[in-house]
């Protein structure tokens, strides 16, 4: 439960507000000293709004104490402060940590982390009331860790927003996640470089939109880039490096690739300074794998690296001053070799390439005139060719990445934007690039000031809150200086660039001083040899060199160079330069498109996107200028805190109400508290709707009274009206909530929803149990009916089968009986009949009189055998013809051998013969023809039971 935490938060809130000074400008030396005496407790302040009093000193000491204990994230009201550790901290960004913050009911209760900002934006997309697009603005100086923070944010969303999918297969989800993440190595390889302040400094600005569908799953992304520092290709500041991709090629190429790219071992290139310095970003294989995952084929990759190798070869081409101005600049033998190598890699004619670099074509009406270039002009044209080629290649890569990872417009519904722009820069020599970079930082700072510092305080006053304004640094005057109209630095620079005349730095300086002398944000050093002007930025003053600024703003590209590249045999090179032919464009049209105008337009479109989204700010702080791990320099950090307005942000966040909700939305979300609190207030307001603002305000106050009553009963504290106002305030159209009050409302709402969910679960489970029992009973009845039907069907089949067997058996038994009766003579009929007369021979040979025998006598006569029942006396009369048959019959009689006990007589019809079927009186006719008795055993054994048909035909008598 959140009650203990909420109690502590409430108490801290009350103490802080009670102890807050009446004026922010009062002297606080004593309070500061008292606060700083407890140095062992400074690291425990995970939110700087708990610091009392809030001063640059107290904020700095808290950050320093946390940094010493390797705690790099700290909340500062609505902003997250991130200190760069300058060393790997893998356990802080593992996947388990991501899932821990993502699955937490209240991520704000965890330790400060960039994942809390990411999760808050992700949950806001799902929306408490209405889904709104989100933007994560990562700002800070160069080297403060913006690129790493942006990379962590993208990894977080790729993990939690694509961890599972309902409508898509797991392979599709992994492919989207991999492609979104693989865009980072490519963009950093082609757009980042090692500078004095940062080993992986972004030399372009990018705004990445992570596209989410209706289920808040990651389905794609798109990348928007701003102002690539293409001058770095041909001109690198002292002790700085070119873009990472060139060093990756040098360090990671195979021998075969080196031979193809004309990069021999030990080869030196003028545009690759500090090539011996090895960085973590020089991972060539990682870049190749990312290209493959994004769908860049091996053939296209080969063309890309041939173009890059050709650019490096151009850097080694140097021109010699020609003694005859009518002749173009000459090349030494070494430069000719490099020019030939560049032409072969770019697949153009070496002669035409040399001509385009050393001779320019002037248009005079319909006629053209070739004029040799000076040594400086030839070098400028060479540099221009390299810069425009690299810039077009970078633009093509961005377009290809977008085509690869961007989802269809019908698939995604909302997005989360991650903005990573170049940090504020101030070098020894600053030119147009630094002016544009710092202008972008000024716009982002103004967005923060307008959205939070100024807008919140003005809204407090308009809503009727008693508020004393907190002073903050407003940089609007600096923006008016640069982009203001009709006269500003950019407008004067564009006007000078569009004039068809040679640029003069001194003339431009005089005009700037004349037109902008009234603006306090610009100043001049009249004693400087080089013409320059100084702008007072929010992060400090920066001096800009005027020399060469107009030419860089024009960014002219000789049309003959474009025409030459369009003839290349490299398909990719022709593709990136295809479009409008520069010869078809008028000079007036080309002059309108300047570097400043393009950058300003793209930045304005970015600001429109930011204004239409809910912003989340992460301020990256650079602890020391030397990028040394665990080194904290107070002056360096203090200047950054002052520049980005952290202290003012903490003041407003601590004293104000960061959460503002309209009455209708408040009742719609928290009206459930009044419904289930036992009070009728707030119950029907959200259902029926409220037309009047006053009615809505009254309902909100009733609801808040109910909440405070429950809070007093649960926490056993008394909340007076003053403390109520410290937690929540009802304005004219909105409810202003502090963070503890929001936690209280969310906790109460969550408790009620849990209770309702439990009730719904009970009802649902009861319904499911009843339904299951009903289904079980129905299934039992159906099973019983089916089983009884099956048994009845089986019994009927058995009855029918038994009837058939019985009928058949009865018929068979009747048939056998009739046949057996036909074999036996009826004794009565035989008695009535006169015995047939016997011939003397038969009388003498065939009649045998047997004496009385007590035990059964077995008569064996082939082919059948009979068992004779016991009788006092048995007379066997046998009639046979012929001696052989007579002997066979006699031999078949197995009679006990008892001398003098047998009497042989003639046929006696009065003697009884015991048969197994009947005991007919008379004689038994023994036939040797077919008889049903043949199916009996031929020779039954006296010692064994009679089985088979003997048992059926002959009833058991033995």
Structure, explained:
- This protein is an alpha+beta fold and 958 residues long.
- It is 50% helix and 11% strand.
- It has 34 helices and 21 strands.
- Strands 1-2-14-3-10-6-7 form a seven-stranded mixed beta sheet, with helices on both faces. A three-stranded antiparallel beta sheet has the order 11-12-13. A three-stranded antiparallel beta sheet has the order 15-17-16.
- Helix 7 packs antiparallel against helix 14.
- The longest helix has 85 residues, at 739-823.
- The radius of gyration is 55 Å and the shape is flat.
- The model is unreliable at 1-26, 685-690, 842-880, 894-931, 933-944 and 946-958 (pLDDT under 50).
- This is Myosin motor domain-containing protein.
How does the helix and strand content classify structurally? alpha+beta
Instruction: Report strand %.
Output: 5-15%
Stated plainly, the CATH topology of the domain at 435-557 and 592-602 is called: Methane Monooxygenase Hydroxylase, Chain G, domain 1
What general form does the structure show?
A: flat
Q: What is the mean predicted local confidence, pLDDT?
A: 77
How many DSSP E strands?
21
Low-confidence stretches: 1-26, 685-690, 842-880, 894-931, 933-944, 946-958
Q: What percent of residues adopt helix (DSSP H or I)?
A: 40-55%
CATH architecture of the domain at 435-557 and 592-602: Up-down Bundle
